[in-house]
Amino acid sequence: xxxxxxxxxxxxxxFAICAQAQDGVLDLTTLHNYANQSRPLxxxxxxxxxxxxxxxxxxxxxxxxxxxxxxxxxNTVSCASCxxxxxxxADTPVASTGVDGTTSRHSMRLINARFxxxxxxxxxxxxxxxENQTTQPxxxxxxxxxxxxxxxxxxxxxxxxxxxxxxxxxxxxxTFGNATVSEVRIQRSLAQFVRSIQSFDSKYDTGRKNANxxxxxANFTTAENAGKQLFLNPPPQGGAGCAxxxxxxxxxxxPNSRNNGVIGxxxxxxxxxxxxxxxxxxxxxxxxxxxxxxxHDGSLATLADVINHYxxxxxxxxxxTNANLDPRLRPGGNLQxxxxxxxxxxxxxxxxxxxxxTSVYTEEKWSNPFNxxxxxxxxxxxxxxxxxxxxxxxxxTLRCQSAANLSYQLESSTDLEHWxxxxxxxxxxxxxIERTVNIVPPAAFYRFTYTVPSS
Length: 455
What we know:
Helix content: 10-25%
Order of helices and strands: EEHHEEHHHHHHHEEHHEEEEEEE
CATH superfamily of the largest domain: Cytochrome c-like domain
Radius of gyration: 26 Å
Number of helices: 11
Oligomer: single chain
């Protein structure tokens, strides 16, 4: 099917749209910067694999997949349903709602998932990479329902479903060079999008630019600087030892960490298999609002509750009950008792609040591209994108700023009614297509058109 102006808005030279962002409209001719975002020089950890570097096109496709409810069995749940931008890509209920019940663990914050040495994901580290993690919720009977069991459709049915959607054929072709949809491609795109979500504009980052962690930050209050030292220093030196497991300046989890002493389970009983945590950045929102409860079981509602837990590890964490307890929380064979004063606890809370950024909560590149009806329109040939350069030899060079790596047809006409194909061109990595044509009769008019790749 060929489109000179639109397929559900896809895309022609005559398609007019205002320059500002609109709900449900995604401009593929001007992609957001995902691949080359700046980050502080002191941020050095990175779990991006060599075969899946972030690209603007890949993360754009990942953004659409992440927010699309059609990735669930009944079109009601997306990845973003349980990982909301307004809450640091977490969920505020203790258990998130899926297509057939609620999740067995609290939804983990996704901010700065890229910046850590821990290659494994989920609270219990059961998958070996972020790529493998991304489609596990889709395959889960409770969460998104393409499990292939218990009456669910199989993942292959989701692939067929997405393959039949014109927007996805365009997006996959733009990203991978052809319109083929596969689980590996879905995983890579989602992982690129999640890894692109970063937050480095916090009060902590402002201070860290001009001082090392072990120095007082000029922009910190006395309480915040005191809390920072408590966080950094080990208990033998009068600190709380938080940095041993939550390593600054990324504040990512130490890969060698074991269970942290929280052993509750949302399904009842105990669960000591949880050994991972998200970065401690953006524990709360920019206004101090909750981004959701803490820990895999959501059992700790506030930062004060978290500090009280580590100040005195519960006596239920005996060797018999929790053989997986991190040895650092059982020094000398005794459960940790830091004996922090209330002032010290308050200072720790004050410091942890400095790890919250601002722009990640509102930045368009990570937001929902769909409108309220879960509809999406793509711009692949913007209005006024074409230019004509007249040459001295009776020819003209036509150029069009389009969407990178997509194939377009150049058509000619003498009457603006009947069109014939001159040739097919593929836009280069910068989105440019170019063709030199004769400017003598009978061809008086030219246009670029687009054909949606076949499924």
